C-alpha cells in the first residue's frame, strides 16, 4: 500500500469547488471564541461540501493568522458571512425554510445516530461557544436539538470535533438517500 501524493488526490481548484453543488447544510457558529476552532470548522466545511458558514457574534472572521493556521486555505473556498446576532440569523434562516438544529445536550434532544435528515430540505446546524454552548434563546427557536452520544466522563467535545462528527453524519445520511 502506497500513501497518496498531493497529485494523486486530484483536488479541485478553489473556483471549481465554489461551482460544485454543495450538501443542503449551513453551519452557524454561535459566539465561538477560539480562532483555531473557527479555522478547523472551515476545513471541515471544505472537506464535506458545506454550503456556507455563518460566523455570529464574537466569532472571529478571516483574515486572521490563527484561523488560517488550521483552515489551510479553506477560508477561500467556503462561503462565509459574519452576522452580529445568532438569534436574528436563526429567525431569518427559518423564514427561508431552513430546518434549524442546535447541537447541544438538552431535554428532548435527538441522538445523532437516530437523526435522519428529510430529503428536499435545507438544514442549518448551530454550534455553540466553548464554555456556554448554544444560547438558550437559539435553542428555543430551533426545530430540533441534536446530541452526540458520549460514554466517557467528560460529556463534552471540542467544537471542531463536534462539527466534524455531525457534518460527516449528515453527509453520509444525505449521500445514502441519493443512492
From TrEMBL:
Which is one Gene Ontology cellular component term of this protein?
cytosol
- What name goes with this protein? TrmH family RNA methyltransferase
Residues in the signal sequence: none
Molecular function GO labels: RNA binding; RNA methyltransferase activity
Q: Which organism is this protein's natural source?
A: Pontibacter arcticus
Can you give the residue ranges of the tRNA/rRNA methyltransferase SpoU type domain? 25-167
PANTHER family of this UniProt entry? Answer: 23S RRNA (GUANOSINE-2'-O-)-METHYLTRANSFERASE RLMB
| UniProt keywords, alphabetically | Methyltransferase, Transferase
Q: State the InterPro entries in the record.
A: Alpha/beta_knot_MTases, rRNA_MeTrfase_TrmH, SpoU_MeTrfase, tRNA_m1G_MTases_N
Keyword Methyltransferase assigned to the entry: answer is yes
Q: Please provide the Gene Ontology terms (biological process) for this protein.
A: methylation; RNA processing
Amino acid at each position: 500500500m502506497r500513501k497518496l501524493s498531493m497529485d494523486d488526490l486530484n483536488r479541485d481548484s478553489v473556483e471549481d469547488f465554489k461551482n460544485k453543488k454543495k450538501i443542503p447544510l449551513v453551519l452557524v457558529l454561535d459566539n465561538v471564541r477560539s480562532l483555531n476552532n473557527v479555522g478547523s470548522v472551515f476545513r471541515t466545511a471544505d472537506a464535506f461540501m458545506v454550503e456556507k458558514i455563518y460566523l455570529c457574534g464574537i466569532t472571529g472572521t478571516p483574515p486572521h493568522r490563527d484561523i488560517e493556521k488550521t483552515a489551510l486555505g479553506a477560508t477561500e473556498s467556503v462561503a462565509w458571512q459574519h452576522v452580529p446576532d445568532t438569534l436574528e440569523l436563526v429567525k431569518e434562516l427559518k423564514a427561508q425554510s431552513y430546518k434549524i438544529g442546535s447541537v447541544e445536550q438538552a431535554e428532548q434532544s435527538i441522538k445523532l445516530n437516530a437523526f435522519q435528515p428529510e430529503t428536499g430540505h435545507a438544514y442549518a446546524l448551530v454550534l455553540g461557544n466553548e464554555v456556554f454552548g448554544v444560547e438558550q434563546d437559539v435553542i428555543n427557536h430551533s426545530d430540533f436539538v441534536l446530541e452526540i452520544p458520549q460514554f466517557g466522563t467528560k460529556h463534552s467535545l471540542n467544537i471542531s470535533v463536534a462539527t466534524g462528527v455531525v457534518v460527516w453524519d449528515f453527509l453520509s445520511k444525505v449521500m445514502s438517500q441519493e443512492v
